[in-house]
């Protein structure tokens, strides 16, 4: 492509095409709807999360340190793969959505490692962290919920004479801080994004990228699979809830990437990393609409995985498996 063609693509005439305006409208409406839902229900969704859910495994007799070890290993392994990718291809790799998502998953495991370290300290010094008392409390709590009996806190409301309550004096460690809320948000965001990148790469892009210009290597294959594998294994160990509301964060993440691409093309770049981002074709609005809609099944796939995990493990291991606090209320 010569300089005249590049100037024509980046010129004002290009950005005033009708399909560009329609795509911008799709992007604006999607972002506005996501922000509206976030402001309306975001705080309510995060309030149902309990601090122990962030660092306690979903397996009753599994010490939190094992979840800490796994998270630290996942972070180190992903950091090494990202380093190898940048060393091989340069920082230009962050031009692609794959590296955005991969880096986000790595950030999640870094934050999760920090939260797990804090949780292990709490677990070591709290009386409830002792194995016998912890198992007794969790078992009693599960039996009350399954049998429909009111919990101690509910009895306290119905009977004025009962004053006992598990968290009678909340401490700072029992309240979610910025780091804990950020961890839950990133978890829901990168899970959907990992599903999207891996499915699109293996099912849509790779079949059409065979040839001399592209060669599938072990490093490229790992970049498009390790993120989802580590997250699925993480979900098999942790107690973090995964609700449909997280789709809002996932959509905002993808919208931010689209805006990033548009800004780059308005300033200096003349090509798109993915062919379905091209705004010069009249089919661009359909492509952008399809990209927005595909977020639903990609995120829904992870929701189904979490639901299948809860259903299968609670049936096969009723005495060993523990649900998240917010999920217990829905049983």
UniProtKB/TrEMBL annotation:
Spans traversing the lipid bilayer: 15-38, 68-96, 102-124, 185-208, 214-233, 245-274, 286-305
Could you state one GO cellular component term attached to this entry? membrane
What keywords is this UniProt entry annotated with?
Answer: Membrane, Transmembrane, Transmembrane helix
**PANTHER family xrefs:** OS02G0130600 PROTEIN-RELATED, TRANSMEMBRANE PROTEIN
| Protein's name according to its UniProt entry | Uncharacterized protein LOC105163000 isoform X1
Q: Which organism was this protein described from? A: Sesamum indicum
